[in-house]
Amino acid sequence: ASSSSSRGGGGGQQQPEEGKGPPPPDVPGPEGGPKMGAAPCRRPPLHCNGMRYKLLQEGDIQVCAIRHPRTFLSKILTSKFLRRWEPHHLTLADTGVASATPTGYMENSISYSAIEDVQLLSWENAPKYCLQLTIPGGTVLLQAANSYLRDQWFHSLQWKKKIYKYKKVLSNPSRWEVVLKEIRTLVDMALTSPLQDDSIHQAPLEIVSKLLSENNNLTTQDHESIIVAIAPLLENNHPPPDLCEFFCKHCRERPRSMVVIEVFTPVVQRILKHNMDFGKCPRLRLFTQEYILALNELNAGMEVVKKFIHSMHGPTGQCPHPRVLPNLVAVCLAAIYSCYEEFINSRDNSPSLKEIRNGCQQQCDRKPNLPLRLLHTSPDLVSQEATLTESRLKPVIVTSNEIHVEVERNNTANQKMTANVGNDSEPNLIDCLMVSPTCSTMSIELSAQADRILGCYVEILKMLSDYDDWRPALASLLQPIPFPKEALAHEKFTKELKYVIQRFAEDPRQEVHSCLLSVRAGKDGWFQLYSPGGVACDDDGELFASMVHILMGSCYKTKKFLLSLAENKLGPCMLLALRGNQTMVEILCLMLEYNIIDNNDTQLQIISTLESTDVGKRMYEQLCDRQRELKELQRKGGPTRLTLPSKSTDADLARLLSSGSFGNLENLSLAFTNVTSACAEHLIKLPSLKQLNLWSTQFGDAGLRLLSEHLTMLQVLNLCETPVTDAGLLALSSMKSLCSLNMNSTKLSADTYEDLKVLLSYTC
Questions:
Q1: What InterPro entries does this protein's entry cite (predicted)?
Q2: CA 461 from chain center: how many Å?
Q3: How far apart are alpha carbons 537 and 301 in whole angstroms?
C-alpha cells in the first residue's frame, strides 16, 4: 500500500522516497475497531487510472486532528495513543473546509491558505482510506468509507485549494507575462483534472472574466493572448457574461483578427446549437451578434456569413440541431431592433402601425388629438384620391425626430370611402379601387453603422428562408410580426424582407403559407402588410396576388376568406383583375358564385371588371354556364335517395348529377366508391341533402372543409374508413345540424374527439 501527494499540489513538503516514509500511526477505527499495527508508510506517485469523479461540495467523513510541532510529526504518526475519530459533515466552501457541527476537531474551519499539503495515506495490513492535510502546528486526517470516496475527497480538496490560490494570485496582477503564464497553468489544470463537473471549466473562465473586467488597460496583444490561452475551455462551455462582454469588444475593435475565426467560431457554433434561452443570458446573444458582424467585415463579407450559416445547417437536407434556427432568428430580431432603438425611444407621439396602415385616419389618444396621416411619396394607386382631397383639406405638417406626419382637420370623406362592403351606401367603382388608404413610409434615416447591421441581418433572414426544412419554423417564428413598427414603416427594411415573404407565398406547404395570415383576429399579418394599401406594399399587387393564390388553394374556410377580401381588399382585387391578373379574376368569379357580394351595384361593377379583359370575359361566361347548370340541378323534383355503384369515380358522380334535377335529394350514399375530395364541388350544390355516406372512400380533409361551409343542413355523415385527419374533422365544428357522425377507423385523435363533442354539443 502507498500514499502520495497529488500532481500539482501547492506548497507541500518534500516527498519521501518510496519505502522511507514515516510509519503509519496505530489508529483506532472509526467505530472503535481494532488498531492497526505500526508499519512503514510508502508514498509512491499517484497514477491516473482513468477514474472520473464528481466535484464534492459537502459530505460525511471521519476526522482526526493531531497537534504537534513539525519536527515531531514522524514520532506522533507512529504513536499508538492517537485521539479518537469524530464523524463530521464537512462543506468545501470557496475559502475553506468547515463542519456543519463546529465542535471537537472541527470547531474552527480550515482555510485553504492554511493547508500546506494534501496527501493520500494507506496501510498495508488493513487499509484505512485516509487523507492527510498538513496545517501549521499539526495534521488533520480524513478517513473515507472506501477508496473511491477517498480519491473523490482528495481531488476535490486539491481543486478547491488551487482555485482559491489562483483567485488570490490573479486578483492583484503585477506583471502580465506572469499573469498569462498563471492563466495557462490554470487552464491546463482544468483540462487534466479527473473531476467531471460543469464548474471545473466554468471556475477558471469566471476567474479570467473577473480579471479582464477589472483591468481595462490591456493591449490588443494581451487580449489575443488571453483569448488563445482560454480557448480550450470554451470548446464545451459557454463563456460567462463578463467574458462575453470582452469578446464583443474584441469583435468590434478587431473584426479581422484571426482570433475571431479560429477561436470564436466554435464558441458561437456551440452557443447556437445548445443555448435554450437568450433571455436568461442576453450577453451570449450579443456576442453572437457581434461575431456575425465581424464576419461581415471581412473581405468576402456576406459570403463568409453565408458559409457560416450553411455550416450551422449542415450538408444534409435536414438540420440535425433543432435549436440553431430559433437562436439565429432571435439574434436577427435583436439586431434589427437595435437599428431602430433611437426612433423607438423617441416615439411618444409617433403614429401606431394601425394608424400607418389606415393612413392615420383614426382618432388616437396621444397628443395632438387629431387624426394623422403619413406623407406619401409615390402615389401610384391614390393619385386620384389625393387630387380630390387636396382641395378640401388643409394639412399642417409636423416634423419630429425625422418622422413626418400630416395632421388632417377633416376625415369625413375618408370615412365615407371606407364604408363596409354590403351596406346600402355602397361606394362606386372608383371608390372601391381607392378603398385602400394612402400607403406611406416614415422618413427614417439610419446611421451608417445601423444601416450595415440592418443589411447584414435581413440578408441572414433571406438565407434562412432558402432552406426548405427551416422554412416552416421560420414562418411560424415570424408570423406574429416581431419587428418594431418603425422597421415596418421603413421602406428599405420592408423591401428587403419582401424576399422572405415571397418565399413563404411560394411554398406549397400549408404550415408555411398559412403563416402569412395574422395570428389572431383583429391583428395584421404579413398578408395585410404586403397587400395594396399596406405599409409594406411597394409593387402593383404581384405579391398580393401570389399570396391570395396560395391561400385560396388550402384555405380552411374559403367563404370566410373571400368575405374578408370583399370587405377589406375588394378595390385592389378589382384593379388587378382589370390588369388581367388571372388569380384576381378567379377571386371575383368566386365572390359572385358564392354570393359574397349582396349589393347590386357592386355586383355590376365586378361584372364590368370581368368583361373588360379576355380572360375575365371567358371565366365569367363559364361561371354563367355553371350557374345555369346549378339552377337546373337544384330544380325541385327528382329522387330523394340515391346510391352510386361501387367503383364509381368523381367523373361518374359529376355526369350523373348533370343528367337531371336533384333538388329533392336528401340521402346520398357513395360508400365503397372511388370518389375523392374533388367531388365536394358537386355535393355542395345539393340544397336538400341531409344524409351523406362516404364509407370506405378516398374523401379527405379538403372535401370536409368545403362541405362544412356549404352543407349547413347536413344531419348524418359517415366517414368510416376514410383518410380524414384531425385538421379536416375540426372543420365540421361549424355544422351545428349534425346529429350523427361516424368516424370509426379514421386518424381521429382523442383530443379532437373530445373537442368535437363539446363543439357539436352531442355525444359522437
A1: CMIP, LRR_dom_sf, PH_CMIP
A2: 13
A3: 29
Name which of 660, 653, 661 is nearest 681 in CA terms: 653
Nearest-5° angle of CA 449, CA 452, CA 458?
140
595 contacts: CB under 8 Å, gap ≥ 6 = none
The string of DSSP letters for 727-754 reads HHHHGGGG-TT--EEE-TTS---HHHHH
Note whether 587 and 548 are within 8 A (CB): yes
Q: How far is CA 633 from CA 336, 590, 637, 659, in A?
A: 58, 19, 9, 8
Do you know the residue count of the chain? 764
Give the position of cell 477561436: 263
The dihedral formed by the CA atoms of 144, 149, 155 and 156, expressed in degrees to the nearest 10: -80
- Calpha distance 452→455 (Å, rounded): 5
Instruction: Please answer whether residues 343 and 444 qualify as being in contact, where contact means their C-beta atoms are separated by less than 8 angstroms.
Output: yes
Nearest Cα to Cα of residue 550 among 499, 491, 507: 507
Closest CA to 417 of 386, 395, 391, 440: 386
Strand partners for 140:
65, 133
In the prediction, which pLDDT does 347 show?
61
Residue 354 has pLDDT above 70, yes or no: no
Distance CA 385, CA 405 (A): 18
Long-range contacts of 479-482 (CB under 8 A, 24+ apart): 479/515, 479/517, 479/518, 479/519, 479/525, 479/526, 480/519, 481/524, 481/525, 481/526, 481/529, 482/333
Q: Would you give the DSSP letter of residue 377?
A: S
The CA distance from 85 to 758, in Å, is 71
Angle of CA points 525, 526, 528, to nearest 5° = 70
Confidence class of residue 407 from pLDDT cuts 50, 70 and 90? very low
b/e for 343-371, b at 16 or more Cβ within 10 A?
Answer: beeebeebbebebbbbbbbbebeeeeeeb
Whether the CB-CB separation of 291 and 227 falls below 8 Å is answered with no
- Residue (of 687, 690, 677) closest to 657 by Cα position: 687
- Is 177:140 a contact under the CB 8 Å cutoff? no
> Does residue 314 sit in helix, strand or coil?
coil
**C-alpha span between 631 and 635 (Å, rounded):** 6
- Give every strand in the sheet of 372-374, ordered side by side: 372-374, 403-407, 396-400
| Choice between 457 and 121, residue whose per-residue pLDDT is larger | 457
Strands 372-374 and 403-407: antiparallel
Q: Do you find a cis peptide bond into 368, omega within 30 degrees of 0? A: yes
CB 646 within 8 A of CB 672: yes
- Tell which wins on pLDDT, 380 or 216: 216
What does the radius of gyration of the chain's CA atoms come to, in whole angstroms?
39
Output the 3-class SS for 136-178: CCEEEEEECCCHHHHHHHHHHHHHHHHHHHHHHHHHCCCCHHH
Is the distance from CB of 55 to CB of 197 less than 8 angstroms? yes
Cell of 623: 361561371
In three-state form (DSSP H/G/I as H, E/B as E, the rest C), the secondary structure along 291-342 is HHHHHHCCCCCHHHHHHHHHHHHCCCCCCCCCCHHHHHHHHHHHHHHHHCHH
| Pairing mode, strands 86-92 and 372-374 | unpaired
SS3 581: coil
- pTM here? 0.67
Q: Is 228 exposed, middle or buried (0-12, 13-18, 19+ CB in 10 A)?
A: middle
Distances from the Cα of 320 to the Cα of 222, 312, 477, angstroms:
38, 9, 19
Cα 315 to chain centroid, rounded: 22
Select from 162, 97, 159, 151 the least CA-distant residue to 121: 151
Collect all residues with Cβ–Cβ distance below 8 Å to 200 and sequence separation of at least 6. Answer: 55, 159, 190, 193
